[in-house]
Specification:
- It contains three helices and two strands, in the order αααββ.
- It is mainly alpha-helical and 90 residues long.
- It has one domain.
- It has a two-stranded antiparallel ribbon with strand order 1-2.
- The chain is extended.
- 1% of the residues are buried.
């Protein structure tokens, strides 16, 4: 059991060494590849993606709050206001 705890600690320490820029670059590449072909249907000119109710925590900065709005603070971030009206209400 001690060996497993040691491996978990090593993994956690290694994970802390990842630069935040790595996630930005990965997201940019995934987004580029996702939209690359441009062969998809749109709704009111936007690509419609379904959501499953997951909560995404964003950095609690003035810039992010200004861009997306704020509904309430949660842990280290905040929940977004609805940036777009639900389908059928626009």
């Amino acid at each position: 059991m001690k060996e497993k705890a040691k491996k978990n600690a090593n993994f956690s320490e290694a994970r802390q060494k990842l630069l935040p820029d790595a996630f930005t670059l990965l997201n940019d590449e995934l987004t580029r590849a996702y939209y690359e072909d441009g062969d998809f249907k749109t709704y009111l000119g936007f690509r419609l993606l379904a959501m499953n109710g997951s909560i995404i925590e964003l950095p609690n900065t003035q810039e992010t709050q200004k861009e997306y709005g704020i509904r309430r603070l949660i842990k280290s971030g905040f929940e977004l206001q609805e940036p777009f009206p639900p389908i059928g209400t626009a």
